[in-house]
Amino acid sequence: MSTALFRKPLCSALVLFNKTLHRCPEKRRYAIKSGILERVVAAFQSISGDAGVSLGDTVREQHGRDESVHRCHPPDVVVFPRSVEEVSALAKICHHHRLPIIPFGTGTGLEGGVGAVRGGVCFSMRKMDQVLDLHQEDFDVTVEPGVTRKALNSYLRDTGLWFPVDPGADASLCGMAATSASGTNAVRYGTMRENVLNLEVVLADGTVLHTAGRGRRSRKTSAGYNLTNLFVGSEGTLGVLTKATLRLYGIPETMVSAVCSFPSVQAAVDSTVQVLQAGVPIARIEFLDDVMIDACNRFNSLSYPVAPTLFLEFHGSTRSLEEQVAITEEIAKDNGGSDFSWAQDEESRGRLWKARHDAWYAALALRPGCKAYATDVCVPLSCLPEVVVATKKDLIRNGLTGPIAGHVGDGNFHCIMVLDPNDQEEVGQVHQFTERLARRALAMDGTCTGEHGVGLGKRVLLREEVGPLAIEVMQGLKATLDPKNLMNPGKVL
To answer: Where is the chain membrane-spanning (predicted)?
Structure first.
């Protein structure tokens, strides 16, 4: 079948940005010719059953978008495999007919990674939702792709173990691996790259690959190329993740959380850098600027001082926490920090962190009826004060609504840009701002995406970040594993 049958991808990040947030069309022509579509659907149904294949407009539209600003691109067909064997068999049919394959977890991504920009088949992994193999004594577990982080931690509740990578949303764990997600706990426990031991992957032709060897789960290895981390962050462009073996951690004896306000952005970020330089093994250290704190206060009926604010959390024994807290409090006070609020029991910590976890919705509430786009830059810690202060000035100078929140312990922060998608002048201003912000981070030896991924909108920036030779190497790897360019085409590269 000629690839001319598929829709062409949008030509640039700017076009994508300026066409954001349009409603999905209720009707559209299939990219697959109807005769071929009928044969393909019949073949899919023979593998996954009638209930495992959907052509419904609503189902396709639900699987053609994530939480990003990118417009909806529904697939032509959605399949719901129940096992790796079904994924492999379905992939072989797609490979034979040259049909694009788009993996789908929970749809919580922020870079348009699930849109079927060239039509094709969405592999929705929600029916593969089993925790398969828990080794408590070895601190590891193997899960299917439909298992979310909250579901896993609920399963682990009585074991004394937990999986700490927390991107905020209740994302699927294989989806988190696909985007190399991280979140609030990454400063202590690392990102998905540090916490995936092995992956089972179905390649474009239906071949099943175990990146570290079938059943392998050692804590470290120096055997051959690191295929596991090749697929972590690949965003579905190299294969469908069907199992992930993950590191687990012991639940800390004690957890203490705190909130502290500062007289300026510089003072808050300086405190972050100094706490880390002092060697405090802090679990979370999150930053919200004054605009974001004000939004959170309104949204959650809170009363935090409207000022640049740090949210902190400490894990460990009672004795070790006393030292961590004392050092951190002294550093904060030296930088003008005040209004410390402490919480130790789980309920109190939950209330304290609610403001941070609801930041996205609080930002949206600043302008009812508008939409949000989250930037995602990350820089070396020494550059963090400069880039945050410069970004704040840029927002004020251009009159943009973009409250700042970030995992500043990693040098990663987000501006949640709240905009009217029907105001083309504002859309253009926001686009220009995001370009300036990303290039500001790149100029400081940072990255255009700390945890959300490249997806549709950051392909040009990726080339600027890694250079043409690295892009050529990536393209070569893609061509080797997916010579027909069927795996989530139009993304990343």
So the answer is: none
